[in-house]
Amino acid sequence: MYKYIKQLTSLLAVFVVLFAFANEAMAAKKSKTLKNTIKKGFVRCGVSQGLPGFSNADASGNWSGVDVDVCRAVAAAVLGDASKVKFTPLSAKERFTALTSGEIDILSRNTTWTLSRDADIGLTFVGVNFYDGQGFMVRKDSGITSTDQFKSGLSACVNIGTTTELNMRDFFTSKGISYEPVVFEKADEVVAAYDSGRCDTYTTDKSGLAAQRTKMKDPDAHIVLPETISKEPLGPVVRQGDSVWEDIVRWSLYVMIEAEEYGINSSNASAMKASENPQIKRLVGAEGELGAALGIGNDWSFNIITQVGNYGESYKRNIADTGILPDRGPNELWTKGGILYVAPAR
Amino acid sequence: MDIKNTTKGFTNFFSGSSTFGKYFPQTLTVFFIIFIFGYFAYNAQVNMDNRGIDFGLRFLGEEASFDIQFSLIEYSGASTYARAYLVGVLNTILVAAIGIFFATILGVVIGISRLSSNYLISKVAEWYIEIFRNIPLLLQLFFWYFAALRALPLPKEAINFFDTAYLSVKGLYIPKFIWTNFSVLFYSIIASIVAIIFVFKYARKQQEATGKQIPKFFISLGIFTIVPLLTFLIGGVSLSFEYPILTQLSKTIFNYIGGVAIIPELMALAAALSLYTATFIAECVRAGIMGVTKGQKEAAASIGLTPGQILRLVVMPQALRIIIPPTTNQYLNLTKNSSLAAAIAYPDLVLVFAGTAMMQTGRAIEIISITMLTYLSISIVISIFMNWYNTKMAIKEK
Hints:
- The complex is a heterodimer of chains A (346) and B (398).
- Chain A is α/β, with parallel strands linked by helices.
- Chain A has 2 domains: 32-131 and 234-334, D-Maltodextrin-Binding Protein, domain 2, CATH 3.40.190; 134-230, D-Maltodextrin-Binding Protein, domain 2 (3-Layer(aba) Sandwich), CATH 3.40.190.10.
- Chain A has helices at residues 2-29, 32-40, 66-79, 95-100, 115-120, 163-175, 187-195, 206-215, 243-261, 269-272, 278-283, 290-294, 300-307, 311-320; strands at 43-47, 56-57, 63-64, 85-89, 106-107, 123-125, 130-132, 134-139, 154-159, 179-184, 201-205, 222-224, 232-234, 237-239.
- In chain B, a hairpin with a 5-residue loop joins β6 and β7 (254-257).
- Chain B folds into 2 domains: 3-50; 81-175 and 243-393, MetI-like fold (Orthogonal Bundle).
- The model of chain B has no long low-confidence stretch (mean pLDDT 86).
- The two termini of chain B are 53 Å apart.
- Chain B has helices at 3-15, 19-50, 81-114, 119-133, 137-151, 182-210, 216-234, 264-290, 294-302, 307-337, 349-361, 364-393, and strands spanning 159-161, 165-168, 171-174, 176-180, 238-242, 245-248, 254-257, 260-262.
- At the A-B interface, α4, α5, α6, β10 and α7 of A face α2, α5 and α11 of B.
């Protein structure tokens, strides 16, 4: 008899524990980050210290760029106002610590998605907002037109703390070329050193090369070589362990891309509410309960599209019209020959 | 109750009149410190657990897979993070040692010049000190680095030193020494140093016993040149050079290949650190010399010592007691300031380990702790050495 009571008690204990956990899981649906963001009234977003096209502040402190737009989209989705974002400029070195320590809630800072970063250091990548690849810039008068002409003894200027150092080593080692890496902490010094002739080539992501080239004394004296030596999918990052917040950020980005796919933009979004297409109606919040599934208002996607615009608008405004990369290349929709293909919002 | 008695009791309690009063506050302080550190460690542990970050040093054994521009030991991208750390530490020590060496020489010269009776010399020294110590070091660093990069020619038009060394924007290229039977030479140098120590001891004994002075400096110089030279003649030691050769890499890109490259980052960093710290050392030296009373010099002169002997035998030994402690601080400052290297791409501990390695592994807490401990250890070693030197120089009460 005693034995049965004992078994029964332990069984009960197991149920109590399970129930407690289930309760816990339900409570977590109301994400801590989401709760804090609504309480504070703004989204805390980590960006770069100034990379034209991605995240750059103008003279009066207004941030713009495709990375900035991701944070604005989240603010529009969660708070209904795309301007309610507090931007924190971060160096490459500080960025992950700022996120894991809870100083910011989204890191949208031209950050490459890699296995070790995703798995190792308490981070979760939510998607890709720019497909980039590492390239090389050389002086035009050097006569080099391809990386095949690289020879041992070259010196390469590079920015610290990025995947660039790794890719550069992989590239040169696989080609059997010995080289001299000159590693700087800040991009301005990299450009200054390259400009003065300290280095023969400057390597970073091609979008970065294009952006930095516009800042140089004589942009036409430099060329970006055609080869791309790495895959650099850049995207926003959130802390590990808050899957609701992760979903909100992911779908805020996806909605921008999908809106472009369906031809919805900031000016026609209101008119699109009367569309025949149910997917368009879902995207502008005229049908379905997509917001509720994420724990936010149902006008979230409508707010994103009207206040921030679709991905194409964001790209045009920040990257194409500023002369950085007029050609969208891989960052074109999959329906138009690019590789932008996102899961459907339904 | 008498107030006076209460205060007295209170004072007694803490001033250690009883065993309890002696140890209780100290124990309390120790526990308090342990508690604070324990709390921080616990807090970090909890927060790291919450975010799914584990703590550990296993990453040190993993492949670093990044290259370093300048290394004193064998290193490639296939080496471990521990090796990369070692490269960074050695580069930090190298630039600190070069900086301390030149800062000391320059500081002593400037400090003595500052006291010169020659108006021009003392004014130049004064201006130098005022300018260099009042500009932030980081700005000086940028100035020297980018000024040097702008001023130096491209490798093709490099400044040529007798066809053996070349100075260009990519650094100073000097021939590489290739020794055969280097160990024989090495032992001969050690042997000659031992011999010189004996000569000095003998000379001192002779002087104390008979008052006769032996020209020990010239004898030592003789030993130090002749003994190693002999190894070339009979020890089978020989030396050849590998000269840097200008190589064309593309239409306009040239570089020197072979030899040893002293990178401009090292030169700029060493120059900025020495010029900056020398100003402070100069002031220490000036204070030290001025701290020796005039009567000492006059007394020394009255017993017939030459001005050189006065400086060497009377003034300096006394001045050193004043100079050493503050100069130790300057050495420590220089070592710590060398961490600004990261700004101009000199691969020191901060750039290599607390920079690239930290960003690749994402292990901020581990790497920053190791880096702090390393700087602490280097500083403590310098401190211990300087304290030893200070004790050696201190007045020995007889």
